[in-house]
Write a structure and sequence with these properties.
This protein is an alpha+beta fold. The protein has eleven helices and nine strands. Strands 1, 4, 5, 6, 7, 8 and 9 form a seven-stranded mixed sheet that branches. A hairpin with a 4-residue loop joins strand 2 and strand 3. The structure holds zinc ion (2 copies).
């Protein structure tokens, strides 16, 4: 596999093709770069390693995947609070650059950066986030001057590098997760953290380098989780959100002219969409989070057509 581009490399490619997006992409670049950097740093953290090892039990993983339950759903995050706090320290100042976040910055700092309550708040918010526990998030937000939606959004941002570090420890040498083996995972949400995907891609044909024969014809669809960074295979003719499947379910929306494989896949049933890139139509191996941001011009087209994103991101959330 060719080495994956960094956030900056992918955004530079996009800016060269779409100069109109330069200002806004430059504004968001530090957020994504800092997340990627923290995830790399935390992958070697002893507490993260111990946590990953504990959830990695093969039998348990297989059983969960077969039942369609995300690996981390309902799991306690004890021991990871410090890692979440570290991310908050680094990321909150960047997040507060967003206009919508400015009025909440004091409340967010108070929430994530209280040394005496690290376990209760940082670990609690990570658990609630990954378990889809809206009530739990609401309880944590209550009395702290935060709307649940704002806490949810900020928590997703701050917890992401910790989850990414965990996910990176679950992958094999080819970068594949155990959930992709034998087509075990069939859901549209993430096999590790349960979030809906932020972007999808169609793969290229692959050669087995040792034997020089074709092991995959290409064109298989994969979804990428913007929260924990996991990727998984998914059926091309099905909607990840509502599960509807069939030849007339998924439609494409793409720019006329050279689109470099970029398009939106949207569901005629529930009208949710996911940016998707056909890697057979472009060079290089883009950083998927950066490319999702780089395709924000399509988010605007989708909004005009009253489609809704599968997963909200900081550029289409407020
Ligand atoms: Zn995930
Ligand atoms: Zn749908």
């Amino acid at each position: 596999m060719a080495s994956r581009q960094t956030v900056s490399q992918t955004l530079a490619d996009v800016m060269a093709r779409r100069p109109a997006l330069k200002t806004v992409l430059r504004a968001f670049e530090p957020l994504l770069s800092a997340q990627a950097e923290l995830a790399g740093q935390l992958a070697d953290d002893a507490r993260v390693a111990a946590f990953a090892l504990a959830v990695q039990d093969e039998g348990r993983q297989t059983e969960r995947a077969r039942q369609g339950i995300a690996l981390l759903a309902g799991i306690g995050f004890s021991g990871l609070g410090e890692a979440v706090r570290l991310c908050a320290e680094r990321l909150l100042p960047l997040l507060n650059e967003l206009e919508a976040m400015k009025p909440r910055q004091d409340a967010l700092r108070a929430f994530f950066l209280q040394p005496s309550k690290t376990a209760e708040l940082c670990e609690g918010v990570a658990e609630a986030l990954v378990s889809g526990d809206e009530g739990g998030l609401g309880n944590l937000a209550q009395g702290r001057g935060l709307e649940p939606a704002v806490l949810h959004f900020a928590a997703g941002f701050v917890v992401a590098p910790v989850l990414r570090a965990v996910t990176s420890r679950l992958l094999d040498d080819d970068g594949q997760g155990p959930w992709d083996k034998q087509g075990m995972w069939k859901e549209g949400f993430c096999p590790v953290c349960g979030a809906l995907p932020v972007i999808g891609w169609l793969d290229r044909s692959r050669l087995d380098e040792k034997n020089a024969f074709l092991v995959g014809g290409g064109g298989k669809k994969h979804l990428h989780c913007g929260l924990c960074g996991a990727a998984w295979q998914f059926r091309r003719n099905a909607c990840p959100a509502c599960g509807k499947e069939g030849n007339d379910v998924v439609e494409f929306l793409r720019e006329s002219g050279a689109a470099h494989g970029e398009r939106l896949d949207w569901c005629t049933g529930c009208r949710s969409y996911c940016p998707t890139v056909d890697l057979r139509e472009r060079e290089g191996d883009p950083h998927m989070d950066a490319l999702a941001l780089g395709m924000m011009h399509l988010d605007m087209v989708a909004a005009r057509r009253k489609l809704r994103p599968l997963r909200r991101s900081f550029w289409n959330a407020f």
